[in-house]
Amino acid sequence: MEKGFQLRCNNLSLGYDGKVIAKNINFSVEKGNYLCIVGENGSGKSTLVKTLLSLNKPISGTIEFGSIKKNDVGFLPQQTMIQRDFPASVWEIVLSGCQAKHKFFPFYTKEDKKIASENIKKMNVENLKNRCYRELSGGQQQRILLARALCATKKMLLLDEPVAGLDPIVTKEMYETIKILNDEGITIIMISHDIESAIKYSTHILHIGHDVFFGTKDEYLKKSNSKLIKA
User: Fold this and answer.
1) How many domains does the chain have?
2) Do 180 and 145 fall into the same domain?
3) Which of 32, 75, 117, 185 has the fewest beta carbons under 10 Å from its own?
4) Which of 153, 183, 207 is the last residue of a domain?
5) Phi/psi at 182 (nearest 5 deg)?
6) Whether residues 177 and 121 fall in one domain
7) Which residues of 120-136 are buried (b: 16+ CB within 10 A; e: fewer)?
8) pLDDT in tens, 67-103
9) How far is CA 193 from CA 49, 50, 163, in A?
């Protein structure tokens, strides 16, 4: 048993209504890891994320939290068109990331507002603080959502396709921002269709499909199924 793990999945089977769409998933994440989850469309990547967030129950197997708690995970979901058109200010969106800490307490504290301000600054979007979220570009919106996720945690970020729909320049900037956060000690778990970037930035790869692979990116590259699969 490894020491100091933050999250570990044991013999996990995923699916809906008893129908298995992914099975035999075993992996562990330690502090400072950068895990990319890759695989074909429909292989169960998003279902795994929902299961890690307790939005779905596993069909079988277990999910363990070690040196962190379940609510220490910040989440950046895939955006829908409805979410992109959300009529709230940037400040309101980012501050809402602090809600999970309070559960039934409906008010934000002075500390919450300080954390939100710090993360707006960290994401370099201070000039957008009073803007309406739906008026922003896709790249700006993703930075806002990343600032929001950071309000929930300083330990682990779970990112579902964070560069989907972004142009190449903004995509590169987003990847570099995420890498900086990882270098500062935040553990990253990211779903990605971009195998080349997954290999470039990650420390570990979880490939879900007919065969399940988990290991370091160097181990992944040595496998015969690692030839830049178009997930």
Assistant:
1) 2
2) no
3) 185
4) 153
5) -65, -45
6) no
7) bebbebeebeeeebeeb
8) 999 889 999 988 765 566 778 999 999 999 998 776 6
9) 15, 17, 10
